[in-house]
C-alpha cells in the first residue's frame, strides 16, 4: 500500500496539476476587517489582479498549460472582466467560497447560503458551473463538502493526507467526492507573502530566498515524478506575479517540461480520468 500509485494513461510517469488561488484583496480583508481602511495592505492583493494575473496567464500560455483557478464568488463579481480572460484562455474556474471566509466557523445553513451565492456569482460572470472546490482560509467541515457536492462540485482539492487522488466518502450514504491532495511546500504564498499589519505571517518571518523556494519545488516534483504520483502546485498572482518571482516560476515549469511523461491536468480532467478508471483509483 505504501508504494501504490495511480495507474496513469499510457506512457504517463506522473500527473501535475497547476492551480491558482485567485484571492485578490479578500485574503487580507478576511485576515483583519480593518484592512478595508488600509490601502497599502489591499494593494498587495489588487496587484495580483491588475498585474500578476496577466503575467501568469502569459506564462501558462507559453508553456501550453491549462490551470485550475479557484475563485471566490466576490472576486468573480468585482473582477468580472478577468474571468472572461481566464475562461477564453482555456483554463478551468472552480469555487473558493464567496468572501474567502473560513467556512468551518459557520453552521450548515450559513455555509449553504455562502456557497450557493459563490456558485451563482461564478456562473454569472464566467459562464461556467464550477465542478471543483477548494476551501478558502484552508479549513472546512465534512458538511462543507456535502454542500459543495449538492451544488454540482465533484472534486475537492483541500486535504493533505496523501499524494494521490482518491475517492472519499462524505456522508453515511456513501456519497463520494474525488479528493486531490495538496501540500504546503508546493504553495507560493507561505514562502512569499508578508505584511506588517495585519501581521502575516504572525511570527513575522521574512520572505523566503527565491532559490530555496525553487529548490524545494524541484525536489518535491522529482519525488512525485519518481514515485508516479500527482503533483499539485498552488499559486497566487499577488505573490508569484511580479517580474522576478514569475521568472522563478518559468524556470520551474521548464524543469518540469523537460521530463518525459508528465501529464498536466486540470481538476476536471483529473476527475474525469479517475471516474472513468475508478477501479484503479484509491478509495478511502
TrEMBL record:
Q: Which GO terms describe its biological process?
A: carbohydrate metabolic process
- The record places domain NodB homology at 39-265
This protein is called Polysaccharide deacetylase
State the Pfam families in the record: Polysacc_deac_1 (PF01522)
Q: Which GO terms describe its molecular function?
A: hydrolase activity, acting on carbon-nitrogen (but not peptide) bonds
Which PROSITE patterns does the protein's record reference? NODB
Give the signal peptide range.
Answer: none
State the species of origin: Neobittarella massiliensis (ex Bilen et al. 2018)
| Gene3D superfamilies, per database record | Glycoside hydrolase/deacetylase
Amino acid at each position: 500500500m505504501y508504494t501504490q500509485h495511480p495507474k496513469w494513461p499510457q506512457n504517463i510517469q506522473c500527473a501535475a496539476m497547476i492551480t491558482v488561488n485567485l484571492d485578490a484583496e479578500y485574503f487580507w480583508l478576511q485576515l483583519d476587517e480593518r484592512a478595508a481602511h488600509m490601502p497599502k495592505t489591499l494593494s498587495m492583493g489588487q496587484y495580483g489582479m491588475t498585474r500578476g494575473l496577466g503575467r501568469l496567464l502569459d506564462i501558462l500560455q507559453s508553456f501550453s498549460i491549462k490551470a485550475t483557478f479557484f475563485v471566490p464568488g466576490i472576486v468573480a463579481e468585482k473582477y468580472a472582466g478577468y474571468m472572461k480572460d481566464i475562461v477564453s484562455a482555456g483554463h478551468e474556474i472552480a469555487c473558493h467560497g464567496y468572501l474567502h471566509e473560513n467556512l468551518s466557523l459557520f453552521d450548515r445553513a450559513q455555509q449553504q447560503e455562502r456557497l450557493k451565492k459563490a456558485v451563482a456569482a461564478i456562473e454569472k460572470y464566467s459562464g461556467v458551473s464550477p465542478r471543483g472546490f477548494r476551501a478558502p482560509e484552508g479549513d472546512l467541515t465534512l458538511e462543507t463538502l456535502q454542500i459543495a457536492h449538492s451544488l454540482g462540485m465533484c472534486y475537492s482539492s483541500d486535504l493533505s493526507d496523501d499524494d494521490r487522488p482518491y475517492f472519499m466518502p462524505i456522508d453515511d450514504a456513501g456519497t463520494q467526492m474525488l479528493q486531490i491532495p495538496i501540500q504546503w511546500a508546493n504553495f507560493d504564498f507561505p514562502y512569499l507573502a508578508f505584511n506588517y499589519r495585519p501581521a502575516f505571517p504572525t511570527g513575522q518571518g521574512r520572505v523566503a530566498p527565491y532559490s530555496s523556494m525553487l529548490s524545494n519545488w524541484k525536489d518535491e516534483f522529482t519525488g512525485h515524478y519518481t514515485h508516479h504520483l500527482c503533483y499539485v502546485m498552488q499559486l497566487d498572482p499577488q505573490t508569484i506575479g511580479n517580474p522576478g518571482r514569475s521568472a522563478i516560476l518559468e524556470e520551474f515549469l521548464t524543469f518540469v517540461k523537460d521530463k518525459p511523461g508528465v501529464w498536466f491536468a486540470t481538476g476536471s480532467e483529473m476527475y474525469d480520468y479517475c471516474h472513468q478508471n475508478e477501479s484503479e483509483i484509491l478509495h478511502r
